[in-house]
Task: inverse folding
């Protein structure tokens, strides 16, 4: 049973000190968008610009994500974007397994309150936590999985697309597949 509201959850999360990342962060990045939406995007963790602003995906990778969303008729007001860890790992290292395990409780609570119809994992780290520990992002991006009535897929992390633009066509296909899935199963998400 869920006993707290979204606002209460956010308030608690913003002052979280459950792991060591709290010592080096500037802001907790709780997430952005509409918590009542049917589609949840999950990234890895905040980078420098996210840490400074308190918002997810606001750097170069975030701009690319916004473009990909626009391509299928979506903007941030129609989705919610969160991360596996909510505080920036120093020097942008991967979040440690222990940090992920502690922080995932916040994402679990967010997911329980949102009850999204669709989850899109951005990159390997999110896919391995949310879909399967041995998830192979290069081979399995764009494939759909169903868990507890939620449809999930992983796509390449936008930062990976910036590093290697040859991977963009594959990721366009993933977003096209997302567009079709939204048309198929979402009731309130109006693509523009
Ligand atoms: N990369 C992520 O995984 N998350 C962000 O919020 C920003 C960059
Ligand atoms: Fe809390 Fe997560 Fe930040 Fe660690 S990373 S302090 S668990 S919000």
Result:
């Amino acid at each position: 049973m869920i006993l707290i509201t979204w606002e209460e959850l956010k308030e608690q999360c913003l002052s979280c000190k459950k792991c060591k990342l709290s010592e080096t962060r500037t802001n907790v990045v709780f997430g952005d968008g509409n918590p009542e939406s049917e589609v949840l995007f999950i990234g890895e963790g905040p980078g420098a610009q996210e840490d400074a602003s308190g918002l997810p995906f606001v750097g170069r990778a975030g701009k690319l994500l916004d473009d990909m969303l626009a391509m299928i008729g979506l903007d941030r007001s129609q989705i919610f974007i969160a991360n596996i860890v909510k505080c920036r790992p120093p020097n942008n290292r991967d979040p440690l397994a222990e940090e992920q395990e502690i922080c995932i409780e916040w994402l679990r609570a967010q997911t329980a309150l949102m009850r999204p119809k669709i989850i899109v994992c951005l990159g390997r780290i999110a896919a391995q936590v949310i879909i399967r520990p041995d998830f192979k992002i290069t081979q399995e991006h764009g494939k759909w999985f169903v868990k507890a009535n939620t449809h999930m897929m992983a796509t390449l992390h936008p930062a990976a697309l910036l590093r290697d633009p040859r991977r963009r066509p594959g990721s366009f296909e993933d977003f096209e597949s997302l567009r079709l899935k939204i048309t198929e199963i979402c009731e309130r998400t109006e693509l523009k």
Notes: DSSP finds eight helices and six strands in the chain. The mean pLDDT is 97.
